[in-house]
Amino acid sequence: MLRVHEADPEAHAVLTELLEAPSLYDEFLRYLSRRGYAIPEHVLTRDVTRAHELDPQLTRVLTRIYAEAEDNWDVYEACEELVDLEDNFQLWRFRHLKTVQRVIRDEDGDRRQLRRRVPAEGTRADLLPRALRRADGDRVVSGDQVVSGGRGTGAGGVAGQGGCARRD
To answer: How many Å from the N-terminal Cα to the C-terminal Cα in the chain?
Structure first.
């Protein structure tokens, strides 16, 4: 992602700094720790340039926040705001993907031909469809269809920890 901006050293430096800084989610977890929640030390000191990994201890903390929402309303509400932020970001990603699919077509305008030329899963070209997997792993958005299967992740690449897990 950064290579695109190498021609502009100032922009490249700013983007590098931002990508190496803690995310909003990282800062929220640090806030929870300062509030006395038992956030594991390895989560607080992790390499912020890498995706979050599922952590059972953290899941228990987030579950407790939701179970005791009346006693921790400000923290619970912040979790819900993070969930809303993730929902809106996922919607933007989906809309962006659909726009790109509509704009980029074969020479003859056939979108089906374009889909057949997209590389197999695991390559850089399928990053956005993989990112659109739902947290429950139930479905994967791919092209113009919804396909069953796959294990999805929430915000930061953590299944069930997209900001804070919503209890629906």
So the answer is: 35
